[in-house]
Amino acid sequence: MVKVNKRAFPAALVFLLAAVGVPAVAQTQSSGSSSTDDSSAIQSVTTVQQQLSKPGPSAAPTNSIDSSFNGSIVRDKATDGVLQLTLDDAMQRGLRNNLGLVLQTSNEKSAGGQRLQQLQELLPTVRGSASIEVEQINLAAYGLKFPGLNPIIGPFQVVDFRAYLTQKLVDVQSLENYISSKHNFEAAKLTAQDARDLVVLTVGNAYLLCIADAARIEAVKADMATSKVSLDQAVAAHDAGTSPRLDVLRAQVDYQNEQQNLIATTNQLAKDKLALARAIGLPLEQKYELSDAEPFAALDTPDPEAAFQQALKQRKDLAAMAEQLKAAEAGKKAAFADQLPSASFSGDFGDMGTTPAHSHGTYTATGQVSAPILQIAKTRGDEEVAGAQYDQTKAKLSDQVQQVNADVRDAILDIQSSAKLVDAAKSNVDLAHEALIEAQERFKTGVEDSLPVSQALSTDEQANDQYISALYQHNVAKLSLARALGAASTNYKDYLGGK
Predict the structure, then answer these.
(1) Which class for 277: exposed (0-12), middle (13-18), buried (19 or more C-beta within 10 A)?
(2) Do both 348 and 386 map to the same domain?
(3) Is residue 121 part of a domain?
(4) 157 and 211, same structural domain?
(5) Is 336 inside a domain boundary?
(6) Alpha-carbon distance 448 to 253, whole Å?
């Protein structure tokens, strides 16, 4: 909670009224109208409190990322003691262990394997074999009878050592299939690189959320200490006979509400720390503390159009989609090439005989040209399927370009608006805290009962929550801009730190 120096009530009132546009009460009035002044002042403060009590910005994560990026692979074991986790350490752990990145890396390996499989269709294939065959033939079984000749021939053996070669000389379909798999492999590599940005965005958001939770806990503790002071004042006034029991009960309710808030915020921090641990591969039983804080730091937002052009050059997901479009185009050509003739060569060479010492070299060589004659429906169907896939990929790429444009502009707008929210919320914190101090002073001197104190305490708590939420939103917006520009995994420090 941000604290301000105590000032005189009239001055504080002027600032409060100016903040919300309420006409200021004249500070120089005759002593005969002091009760009227007090009544107007209290009404104005109540109006200010109602303005400040409006709900603040939500601190819930707003990014819609594949749920796999919320998980991870745990490679280490929990250690004794409390781990001091910096933002950099959390990012590095996420880039090593995050499940989304691991899965994308596996997809890259799979695409690489498919590329090699298609490449083999264009390369020579050589295999070897060695065999020994022992036979005995009954010629009579085949209807062959020769007078004076024994129909049983053998047993005899044949030893054969042979190598076989096959090579496609002309096969346009296999060539286009290889080109398609090559582009798919490049797309998978770029997608894996883009996944690093998503890991940074996920981990950064989780870390910033834990920072916001910790700030809320400190704010609630401060409010609880303030409510304890009010409770002590109410008890003392009641014991002195200058305050009713109702004031004590009201102060006790406020104090117990702050205790409940402390329990809830502490529990929320524990849950958000578990979510952060899940995203970076930290054992859930590992105790750790956040050692970094990301306070407000202004960022000079770029021109939206210039930022969009920069994103077009840097976004890996756009480059991956462009590679997928090239793969789909090659798939269309492969579907058409299925009706074209293909030429291939096959041959074998070996050594054959009754024994390895009694053998002779033999070989065969075959050239073949083949072409489909009647498969109209299959060819037409393959072309339509490949054409539809190409059209879909092209449409997705066009939409993705516009999505990147929207991401950049949304992030810039969020940064600008959240920066203004930070300023406004900071002012609200100062005003609400001063209003709380004034209410406590008036209750202490017996001018008012404890109701204005209770209302001011609620307003102070709401103002602190607004400020913390605005800080969180501003930092997440800066991180989102880094992701929108395709620079999150390399330059996230520059954006969070402001430049």
Answers:
(1) buried
(2) no
(3) no
(4) no
(5) no
(6) 18
Give the angle 313-315-320 at the CA atoms, nearest 5°. 105
CB atoms within 10 A of CB 209: 22
Residue 97: strand, helix, or coil: helix
Same domain, 457 and 388: yes
Write the pLDDT tens digit of every residue in 297-335.
888 889 999 999 999 999 999 999 999 999 999 999 999
pLDDT in tens, 329-347: 999 999 999 999 999 999 9
Q: Please write the tens of the pLDDT for every residue from 389-416.
A: 999 999 999 999 999 999 999 999 999 9
CATH number at residue 322: 1.20.1600.10
- From residue 155, alpha-carbon distances to 66, 136, 158, 159, 352 in Å are 70, 4, 10, 14, 17
Count of domains in the chain? Answer: 2
Contacts of 473 (CB under 8 A, 6+ apart): 57, 59, 414, 418, 421
299 three-class SS: coil
Helices 451-484 and 304-314, axial angle in degrees (round to 10): 50
Burial 295-334 (b: 16+ CB within 10 A, else e): eeeebebeeeeebbebbbebbbbbbbbbbbbbbbbbbbbb
**Same domain (yes/no): 135, 227:** no
Say whether both 73 and 208 belong to one domain. yes
Per-residue H/E/C for 387-425: HHHHHHHHHHHHHHHHHHHHHHHHHHHHHHHHHHHHHHH
Q: How far apart are CA 224 and CA 461, in angstroms?
A: 10
Q: Is there a single domain that holds both residue 160 and residue 230? A: no
Residue 270's CB: how many other CB atoms inside 10 A? 11
Instruction: Tell me: do 217 and 286 sit in the same domain.
Output: yes
The domain containing residue 386 runs over which residues?
9-112+179-330+379-497
**Is the same domain home to 395 and 319?**
yes
- The string of pLDDT tens digits covering residues 140-184 is 898 888 888 888 888 889 999 999 999 999 999 999 999 999 999
